[in-house]
Design a protein that fits this description.
The chain is mainly alpha-helical and 536 residues long. The chain has 22 helices and 2 strands. The protein has a single domain, classed as Amino acid/polyamine transporter I (Up-down Bundle).
Length: 536
């Protein structure tokens, strides 16, 4: 089987999905370019900032992509390439894209608030509080785990640390040039991207070496300032510039695959059960961001909704970004299934470099057929992955602050918790630091996949009720919601059983708590749907 053929199938499928199903969803959501968005009505120069579509797409894409769509498909390849490829394509077009797109629209129709606000208005305040606590907890876990992961990358690849620090300085200069000095976007982008790749070159030549603990402290200090600073001066321009790294990896990977045209050596299907567990539900939880991810709804209904200039920008940003991420997931899958199965097993070990090592080596090999030295290609891919992980880290911190503030906004005596962005950020980071320095984040990581997908289920549930309240057709979100609840609840049940046998009581308790949150929200949502049906 030719890898180039798999790439063609993926690209054609995503293009057709965007043109036809994307437009279908846009029509159902009744987009109106003349309807004023919260970025204009609530403009404050900090969180609510009207943003040009290319810049906002760069922020959104870099935030949702991260390293997850690379890791998930490579890990899931143990089931064989056919089930993973099918799920990436179907999931991206009919579930993930719809989830991200509709979450963005639901948020701007509710003043740029989170999905928790949608839940409060249509399901109840208790449901909102449950969601906010759950979502904030997941974000704290994301911050802890990604800080741990990025610090390890900085220790292992000091060049990445240098490049990342230079990215931050470059982003600030870029933001000032666009918003304060009114420099043309195209000119700033050309110069910014050139300097971005210059940062990579400088990083390779002048690596900064520090200990693991030092880098963790540096990262937490950075994300604090990234979460409280105006989005236009750091978060938005850094993500925009970093997205060009991702675009470069995508383009180089696709062209490299066509030129090299490696053969798929992996089995098409290895069986319904392996060391990961059963194909259902483990495959769907493992691929995660490559098909659908609850974290995306937090980005769509968090930072992105507050910067959307007009509603029609939501289709390329919300739906289109997910499909592009699906293409990245297919490239990651190809890097895994074009090596021998025995080599895959060896490389998946800690000493073998794991999924990131497989992706970097694979992309580097594809790029080498374009006349670029293999070593340079491997280094570039590794640096790009670390940059994506950092964008997820700082976006998750800002989102955690949003969730924290929103939880206390109805309590007038606690305005310091609802209005003061410094307090919310400090509390969020403090808990994440506690998890990271205690090592608990690594223990909790197995829960992240199920918790992430459960977030997607809950977001789709909230949107289903919202559309029902408006008397609109909600089947395009309702059926994906049913499927995702089946996946996540089954996965959590397996997790409770597996960890009970392993006597891992903390994971058993957390899994049961997640089940309780999900079931409670389903019951409350069902009550709302019955009420809506009775008044129709």
């Amino acid at each position: 089987m030719s890898a180039a053929l798999l790439m063609i199938v993926a690209l054609v499928s995503m293009l057709i999905g965007y043109i036809f199903y994307g437009r279908y969803v846009a029509k159902k959501l009744d987009l109106d370019p003349k309807r004023t968005t919260p970025a204009h009505t609530k403009q404050d120069g900090v969180d609510y900032v009207p943003t040009k579509a290319p810049v906002l797409m760069g922020h959104h894409f870099a935030s949702i992509a991260g390293a997850a769509p690379i890791l998930g498909p490579i890990i899931a390849a143990v089931f064989g390439w056919i089930p993973v490829l099918i799920w990436i394509l179907i999931g991206s077009i009919f579930l993930g894209g719809v989830h991200d797109f509709s979450s963005l629209i639901a948020s701007i129709r509710h003043g740029g608030k989170t999905i928790g606000e949608v839940i409060e208005e249509h399901i109840g305040s208790a449901g909102k509080r449950l969601f906010l606590v759950f979502a904030w907890s997941v974000l704290v876990l994301v911050i802890a785990v990604f800080a741990d992961a990025v610090a390890k990358v900085f220790v292992k690849e000091p060049a990445t640390a240098t490049a990342s620090l230079l990215f931050i300085v470059l982003a600030i200069v870029f933001g000032l040039s666009i918003y304060r000095f009114k420099a043309p976007l195209w000119l700033s982008s050309v110069i910014g991207v050139a300097l971005l790749f210059g940062c990579v070159v400088i990083g390779v030549r002048f690596p900064i070496t520090q200990s693991y603990d030092v880098w963790k402290v540096v990262l937490f200090v950075y994300v604090f300032f990234a979460a409280v600073a105006p989005v236009w001066i750091l978060l938005q321009p850094r993500d925009y510039l970093s997205s060009f790294l991702l675009y470069s990896i995508l383009l180089a990977g696709i062209v490299g695959i066509f030129v090299a045209n490696p053969q798929v050596t992996f089995p098409a299907f290895t069986g319904f059960q392996n060391e990961l567990g059963y194909l259902f539900p483990i495959l769907f939880v493992t691929v995660a961001c490559g098909a659908i991810s609850g974290f995306h709804s937090l980005v769509s209904a968090g930072t992105t909704a507050k910067q959307l200039n007009k509603e029609t920008d939501a289709m390329p940003i919300g739906y289109g970004s997910m499909l592009i991420e699906g293409v990245l997931a297919v490239i990651a899958l190809i890097t895994a299934v074009t090596i021998l199965q025995s080599d895959y097993s060896r490389l998946m070990t800690k000493d073998g470099g794991g999924p990131i090592g497989i992706f970097s080596s694979g992309v580097g090999g594809f790029i080498s057929h374009l006349g670029i030295p293999r070593e340079a290609g491997v280094t570039f891919a590794a640096l790009a992955i670390s940059a994506f992980a950092l964008t997820t880290l700082d976006t998750a911190t800002r989102l955690g602050r949003f969730m924290f503030q929103e939880f206390f906004e109805d309590l007038p005596k606690l305005t310091i918790l609802s209005k003061n962005r410094y307090v919310g950020t400090l509390v969020t980071i403090a808990v994440a630091m506690l998890l990271t320095f205690s090592g608990t984040s690594r223990t909790l990581w197995p829960l992240f996949g199920a918790a992430n997908q459960l977030l997607a289920s809950i977001a789709l549930l909230a949107i289903t009720v919202w559309l029902a309240e408006l008397r609109k057709n909600n089947k395009f979100v309702k059926y994906p919601m049913y499927f995702m609840f089946c996946v996540t609840l089954t996965a959590l049940c397996f997790m409770v059983y597996k960890n009970f046998l392993a006597r891992n009581i903390p994971l058993v308790i957390l899994s049961i708590v997640l089940l309780g949150v999900a079931i409670t929200l389903v019951i409350k949502a069902n009550q709302s749907l019955r009420r809506i049906a009775q008044t129709a």
